[in-house]
Amino acid sequence: MILTPLASRPHDHSRCVSQALAEAESICARQGVRLTALRKRVLELVWQSHKPLGAYDILAVLSEEDGRRAAPPTVYRALDFLLENGLVHRIASLNAFVGCNRPEHAHQGQFLICRQCHAAIELEQAAISQAIVAAAAAVGFSVDSQTVEVVGLCAGCQEAK
Amino acid sequence: MILTPLASRPHDHSRCVSQALAEAESICARQGVRLTALRKRVLELVWQSHKPLGAYDILAVLSEEDGRRAAPPTVYRALDFLLENGLVHRIASLNAFVGCNRPEHAHQGQFLICRQCHAAIELEQAAISQAIVAAAAAVGFSVDSQTVEVVGLCAGCQEAK
DNA sequence: AGAGAACAGGTAATATAATAACGTCTCTAT
DNA sequence: ATAGAGACGTTATTATATTACCTGTTCTCT
């Protein structure tokens, strides 16, 4: 039996968001860093769906709701903070950001990106990272960080066809 | 014994280049597509080292040698052609391009990028792609394409420390 | 409580990467 | 020779990200 990931099937998404925000609060408190209103709002926007969101999309929303138009550094600084604290991930191949599923512990996810619905499913498969580390070690390369981004069709979109 | 990849140790690089160009000629001939002077020159520039090269770096060289300054589409079109025909790869995390080691057959490489010397070592490890496909399949996701880009220290730069 | 440091964020300008739209020239096949 | 496709020039624009500088807030130490 296949366990479809949350990101690729209907669910009460508001719970994803509120849980992510609550976790973020507690993580920041524990780390002694400040989850300011702006940072929290950016995190919330990134979590609005499971689709990676561009910095300028966030910027557009902030500008609209603030009246005064926000400038790029505002968003990038908030995103940098969220990245540093493991609350969001950056998807290099999309120039976009997505909420982290498991912010409790430091990690780098692997991402399955649906070419149809654009949802990004985060994996954390030791088998994948180990295969990478092993292949690297075989040529004397020591690994610091991995980017694994996979494009294809998620379970939901395969059914839909 | 560790077999250090070519990219991360000294070698007669002019042979890399001439071989890559010769292979490109024969592949394009076989495919019935045109490796024009411009495309060939761009391929040569991408091969100038094992370091991924940005489109605008290529542009700068072309501009200088042509006198008239080249415009972005000139370079991007050549790169698109080279990508389509498997002669170069794009490194998403760097917004840069690198020559393909094995253009004879279609594939997507995995890349080890040295944070010190910036060389990109191309791997083609079935174990890695299989681990990815398997993990994806386990959640019902069918894979079209994979991006695997790893940052760390190559063998040469580890010694150098 | 007040001084000073560290941090957060506003603002303007700029850098970097990529694409769109349109025109012209050149091969090549008939 | 000529029509059509392909290659490339050219101008402009869009998308993504960073730099530099300044202001205001919060934290810390005394």
From TrEMBL, chains A, B:
Chief place of localization: cytoplasm
SUPFAM superfamilies (UniProt xref): Winged helix' DNA-binding domain
Location in the cell: Cytoplasm
Gene3D superfamilies with a match to the protein in the record: 3.30.1490.190, Winged helix-like DNA-binding domain superfamily/Winged helix DNA-binding domain (1.10.10.10)
Keywords, alphabetical: Cytoplasm, DNA-binding, Iron, Metal-binding, Repressor, Transcription, Transcription regulation, Zinc
Family to which this protein belongs: Belongs to the Fur family.
Subunit structure: Homodimer.
The protein's name: Ferric uptake regulation protein
Gene source species: Pseudomonas zhanjiangensis
Protein's gene: zur
